Amino acid sequence: MRLADHTTTTAAEALESVDVAVVPVGSTEQHGPALPLGTDFITADAFAEAVTDRDDVAVLPTIPVGVSEHHRQFHGTLWVSPETFEEYVTETIEAVASHGVRKAVFVNGHGGNVNALERAARRLRGDGTAFAPTWNWWESVPELSDDLFDSDGGHAGPAETSLLLELAASLVREDALEEAGDGVPESWGKSVHGASVGFDTIDFTPTGVVGDPTEGSRVAGEELFQAASEELNALVDWLVDKPFDSLRSTDHV
Amino acid sequence: MRLADHTTTTAAEALESVDVAVVPVGSTEQHGPALPLGTDFITADAFAEAVTDRDDVAVLPTIPVGVSEHHRQFHGTLWVSPETFEEYVTETIEAVASHGVRKAVFVNGHGGNVNALERAARRLRGDGTAFAPTWNWWESVPELSDDLFDSDGGHAGPAETSLLLELAASLVREDALEEAGDGVPESWGKSVHGASVGFDTIDFTPTGVVGDPTEGSRVAGEELFQAASEELNALVDWLVDKPFDSLRSTDHV
Amino acid sequence: MRLADHTTTTAAEALESVDVAVVPVGSTEQHGPALPLGTDFITADAFAEAVTDRDDVAVLPTIPVGVSEHHRQFHGTLWVSPETFEEYVTETIEAVASHGVRKAVFVNGHGGNVNALERAARRLRGDGTAFAPTWNWWESVPELSDDLFDSDGGHAGPAETSLLLELAASLVREDALEEAGDGVPESWGKSVHGASVGFDTIDFTPTGVVGDPTEGSRVAGEELFQAASEELNALVDWLVDKPFDSLRSTDHV
Amino acid sequence: MRLADHTTTTAAEALESVDVAVVPVGSTEQHGPALPLGTDFITADAFAEAVTDRDDVAVLPTIPVGVSEHHRQFHGTLWVSPETFEEYVTETIEAVASHGVRKAVFVNGHGGNVNALERAARRLRGDGTAFAPTWNWWESVPELSDDLFDSDGGHAGPAETSLLLELAASLVREDALEEAGDGVPESWGKSVHGASVGFDTIDFTPTGVVGDPTEGSRVAGEELFQAASEELNALVDWLVDKPFDSLRSTDHV
Amino acid sequence: MRLADHTTTTAAEALESVDVAVVPVGSTEQHGPALPLGTDFITADAFAEAVTDRDDVAVLPTIPVGVSEHHRQFHGTLWVSPETFEEYVTETIEAVASHGVRKAVFVNGHGGNVNALERAARRLRGDGTAFAPTWNWWESVPELSDDLFDSDGGHAGPAETSLLLELAASLVREDALEEAGDGVPESWGKSVHGASVGFDTIDFTPTGVVGDPTEGSRVAGEELFQAASEELNALVDWLVDKPFDSLRSTDHV
Amino acid sequence: MRLADHTTTTAAEALESVDVAVVPVGSTEQHGPALPLGTDFITADAFAEAVTDRDDVAVLPTIPVGVSEHHRQFHGTLWVSPETFEEYVTETIEAVASHGVRKAVFVNGHGGNVNALERAARRLRGDGTAFAPTWNWWESVPELSDDLFDSDGGHAGPAETSLLLELAASLVREDALEEAGDGVPESWGKSVHGASVGFDTIDFTPTGVVGDPTEGSRVAGEELFQAASEELNALVDWLVDKPFDSLRSTDHV
């Protein structure tokens, strides 16, 4: 069910069968010349949609601005600090837990959010409020991604391009995909003798893109979306099956 | 224009003509038995939509969870602390200002957000980052509201009920409007000898509603929406006309 | 009783019959050319004095600097941030609660303090420490104020002018009252199409005053003071009558 | 001059000749069975009064609650955290500095405030806002104190008892002085093999007193008050003579 | 040079030729039954030692407690929060930068520190204070590690075991290596359908170890240490060669 | 025992007999032309070493950067803010307390750390986590110091010079001792009419030294070290003897 569509009265009843809150979290940030700034919340939103018809799931509204300062040099990128993002998502989970839903999944569309989400989840588990792991769609189907594309899934690379063609084709500037991949690296970051020195995206990619976006296709996007959606459903099944107490922090040995 | 629909490249060009960022901010919170939990972001969203086709406006994604702890006893209410909300919106405006858009309007659907938004706006103006006042739709057309309804516009009262009937009728449980208004007060809060002692909504309304929702109608909603949308457009015009320097903090006398 | 006049030993005994702590909170800020910078703590102090001879009340020392940044452009205004003020008053109440006095009233002389006081009170109630509403004298006798003056009570307007003439006439520059009211607005703030754009007092009043101060008189001040003092006494009575548990936060429905 | 007695208009003129802001800071805390809880702000207030008629001084309102958690076990003690107190005084000085008064003295009545005041002063000097040392009356006349009393000045000991007899005799319970000094230590704190283990006053004094209060007298109080007041005046003279730039932080060698 | 061995006078001269500060950062945390709790600062220390004789390097004292809460269930683990660790290292770099050394390397012995170090480095670069990337020894020689061991380098696995045998053999309990590797996973963490659910080490390894420690040897340790030390030297060379301005954050496109 | 030398398995057993954690805390800061920047952690380290062979003591790694901003104008000084230092040490004690060791001693080499350590200790005692007083070597043998030297022990004065000659003679530049004491004051700080105005060391000593370092000698250092080490052992004995509950905060009277 979608929480915000309910009134407080119908929510009272619907929440009785809900076991897992799903919180889509994205970002509004550059995705190169061809993909929309909203890419990461569009994907998060779409994956959350894939579990919305479950009675044991409450999908919360999508949080659209994330940890993206490293994209700030590119026009249109929005960001908040990791601390603010962590607080925002932590308190949102605390709220839903106050209504009795103490398992949650962050359905995440943006790699930059991961550390903050993990700190949030650690706090929530640590004080016994909730068990709230992060689900990153790109980590749920790594082999498929390898099968589909020669290059790395990347940032605004073939995987995201494919997904957007599937989910929001009207927002993809297909004629810019060639330019998007021009002179970009195969993988994220920049390393010198074991030290990571690529602080900002602009330090290692001229267009903001990583991976070859021209490899993307709607067909690949459909396949990725289906496969990853199944993984998300399986994750929710796993969470539903686990008693909450079995998910708590382990005691000192 | 809608920022998130642009790629970074097309945003670069489009932002050149943008003068005002519009940030819809709402809440996910109880609106009594008849209106959806998403009421406040649905209205914020809809009003922002009313200025989306302007080239001098960039509409940002909607921020869906706000300052609503005082509704926490009712099922489904989400909230973050005033401090976290203030940070989240302040940093979002700082980001958009970094791309050259230094006037903004918070298009706000929730009274509980107002103080935090005003603190944010004060900071942003104080350090010269941006001029970002808050526009509350219900304050833009007070006379119309008085004309349309006998009771106060309220919370989940006749004004919001009317707007929702206009904007998202499928989410309104019209058969629950009667029950929603049962035993509720005419106006917000609870005062004892000059001291406000209504800390939480539940302290002064049994259903979570203030004002008589049965007074609401789709026709009234349409009228409210049109009138307030015109006010918002007029506010944007006013901002566009003002040179940024004329909006800065005044110096010491 | 006045807490600070007691020794710890006599306080031990006196506190046994005390049910309500009274904390006068004011500000040191511009009140136009005619009223002293100390206006808001002078009034808070005087109202607290009106309940000092009650055995069931402990009056704490007056907190003299408040949330007044919006008056900063006028000479002599002092201020602290809302966060600092909130902390200062919250911790003061926590201290008095540690001695067994868990009901309190902020006797407040300054509108700018209200939001911070309400956040403090929410925290104190939320964690079960104390019930500490804010009493604003101007909200305790709104009809009387309307009866006495044609214009709004205002800031440094007729109501405060009257009170100061009653309470501290030697600090009122009566010959400046005319100048004080020159070109000032009837009511607080500045609104454009539903958006509040009067961030600082100086944005909407040239002298720092709101309302017509020449309407003020010692006689009106005496009347205001008596009437509001009675309201404060009635509020204390109400608090004394309420069992502490009946004032706690309500549970989830 | 006393700042709060001025209107903003007369303050504008008076502040032109002011060179030093004087901020009385005290505490509301146990001073044993014989002295009032307000002892520390009463003394701070009185010393500030001693420089009020200087045109080059602006006396600010007295800050009455300080860093006194270590007295919390005794009835009536109020306190805020060191961080909150530091913020409150720092921001107050920032405010007065914004009106052009960039030298200040904290006239301090309470030893527990010293560390927080010093951190505040370091910040204010470090960022170039103000030079704001702390004046502790008991450190201005150490030899006189040694001459007047056999025992240490102490806490609620002979020095404070004498001052209170001079400044607020009606609040001193002289018949309790004997009991106050019963079984109390000669000096502050408790040390074990070089480690300070006296965290709270109650850890080392049964009545809350340190030093023999029966040694106190009004005559000694008068002498102390005169001598220390002269020192404060001399400090203000010293500050007035120093160009502000000569008081700034020194550069790196 | 080692900074702490200098007096301030000799440091003044020596710092003139220093271009890069090296800050060893480790942790005190469980490394299974066979390796000492100090493993991570011992390795950090040793690698820093490898560049100590360079005149263009100042080695700072080793920071011994890091971000290790996820090992807390095992005896002896110490930790601070990520925020505290980030502050501690950030301020340390700010201090050394105040003496003119604005390039730095965190020589890091602990994976759990990485995110906090990267946030610190981002802040330091963002405000123009310093360029301070993190060097993780295990990321400087990944191929060698793959060549030397069948299993992953791991936590307290073959790579760390080898290094400790080389650097501090007396602290390795070689007779416990077998037990250490009993039932442990090949790689870090625990993933369910794309979600990381291994919050604490104890969630996925019974002994606290990851990777097979019995593969470790002193010879492998020597090889790893030499190879990685060369990489660190090469990184320092790279930093020395880069003008500071070329390392600053890039401007908006 | 030294905690970091143990594996988690041997620590489990060893910690059973441990009653007191010893945390050496120092600073890296100017000690004039003759003593090393590491003086304060070298001494802290050495004193901690003196109790390392006790089975009832766990010595933690040395924390090398402390509260030394007031020395910042001298080359090589490192520092963190008091708040950061307080957090770092508080959390470290919380960690060791989680393994059952709830008494601790900060073996402190630096006067500037004292206030932050005391705030940390107050918090740790206040919430029942641990009893963790600070041991300052110079306060454990004040009479001996007076006997040995004509001048005050000072900063980089005769006491520290003597200790360093005993503990790390190779780092002492004996030929610079004369210069070090040139024109320096006998005691710490600078006072004007009862106000402390010596914010930074450089405000009152040209070389960074206080007290006459030429009075120092290895023999005196040996005597100081032995005597103070005995005091530390005696303090540990005292702590071991005290039941933890007898060290908790006292209740309200």
TrEMBL record, chains A, B, C, D, E, F:
Pfam families: Creatininase. The keyword Flavoprotein does not apply. Keywords: Hydrolase, Metal-binding, Zinc. One of its GO terms (molecular function) is hydrolase activity, acting on carbon-nitrogen (but not peptide) bonds, in linear amides. GO terms for biological process: riboflavin biosynthetic process. InterPro entries: Creatininase-like_sf, Creatininase/forma_Hydrolase. Its cofactor is Zn(2+). The keyword Zinc applies. This is Creatinine amidohydrolase. It comes from Halovenus aranensis. The lineage of its organism: Archaea, Methanobacteriati, Methanobacteriota, Stenosarchaea group, Halobacteria.
